[in-house]
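To: structure desk
From: M.T.
Subject: fold request, one chain
Message: Could you run this one when you get a chance? Sequence is below, nothing fancy, just the single chain.
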Amino acid sequence: MNEMMTIGVGGLAVHVPRARVDLREWCTWTGQSPEKILAVVGRSFRMPGRDESVYTMAASAALQLIERYELDPQEIGYLALGTESSTDNAVGAIIIKGMLDRALIDLGRKPTARSCEVPEFKHACLGGMYALKSAARWAALEGRGRRGLVIAADIAEYERGSTGEPTQGAGAVAMLVERDPGLFAIDLHGCGSAAAYRGLDFRKPFARHFTAGYASATQRPHDFPVFNGRYSTSCYVDEVIAALDDMFSKLDLDRRRFWDEVAGVMLHRPYHHMPIQAMAAAFVVGMGRSPSEQETFTALCRDAEVDPKVAIAEALAEVDLFEQAEREGVDAEPRPLLQRVFKRFRGSPWFRRFVSEKMSLGTSGAMELGNLYTASLPAWWAAAFAQAVDEGVELERRTLLAIGYGSGDAAEAWPLRVVPRWRDAARRIGFAESLADPIALDQTTYESLHDGREVELNAAPRRGFVVDRVGDCLRGTGQDVGIEYYRHIA
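Reply: Done. Structure tokens follow.
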């Protein structure tokens, strides 16, 4: 990593709703296999109450960050929101700024600076990383010693009975961006990027709301996506491989040495098993393309009963996934023979050890959250640093790899360097406290809350923000139809 690059993240704060669905319980309601769901997806997910929104969660996380890291709000010159759950098509992060300013004044403090930029970033689950990268560039080029505050916040919801239902979730992660950061530096010169249009991958076209029969059982505004699960998995894997290729081309590093030395690897996690699946594929495709690893790759192919020459051809081939999906359907497999090699490799002792040693830090905590869309990866960071400081894991000056992904598609692969004083910042994250005091939902309450039916659920956050009311004035002066008004809970 470039030692001159000292822009990065100095603190993290997590906010999730208190309403919690235990996936083991959910399996008894739906007839799903708890062994499979818990191993592949996770242990639980959170749901917002009727007085919570993506904006209240984002502002709650941001205020928590300001308080825990004792920030001077006047030093915040860049406040960005990364989300795919915003409900206003005109404004975004300024809503968060307004909520924070009123709350700070009520608490007897100064508000955030008037000279503060307030952009919103949207690209499916990658919006938070794009916001963070933009804030890091701002800090490096024009921050003049001021700090950036980035919030990744989302509500992941799926129709009941769909394959996505167990992968729901809601929450926000606030990130402090600064020079001489307290947690980790981002090597902006070494960040890898990739993007390719994938058409009918996970999408949220407005037209779905006006289609007869779409989500007809739900009696509330909803944001259920249009998605094709198997195709989306292929897109995720392919874009991660491309982003890693770009990162390694910029770093000019030996891949094998990098994998041996990296202290932790964290990816966007729509569910627990997806990062593991993607990394296995990345390793196999990398071996297939590397002349120095042909002997290892050939042995792996033979174990999987696959012709090595054909497998190498698949590894080297550039596949247009969208064109293939249009031609053969969304269930078409872009690398059919390599799929058998991927599966064989996932069970190998080397890869199992890699997952255990390089991908386990923070995993247990992340499995409690469900899918937070753009907040999923930074939530894993928070869980990892909190676990590391609690268990005495040594991370000083170690490299971490962060890989973000957003459907549609785009991916980012970033090398991060943990700074020497990371422990103090990690102790302030308070990850366990953020998950404390959950309200366990039974089947009836879950289904009622999910579908928008009347339900008694006193699930207001212990501290933070709630939606106080929603405007309904449509004509005349003072129009505010659909506009949320917020209340701060001190």
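Reply (cont.): The chain has a mean pLDDT of 95. Let me know if you need anything else for the meeting.
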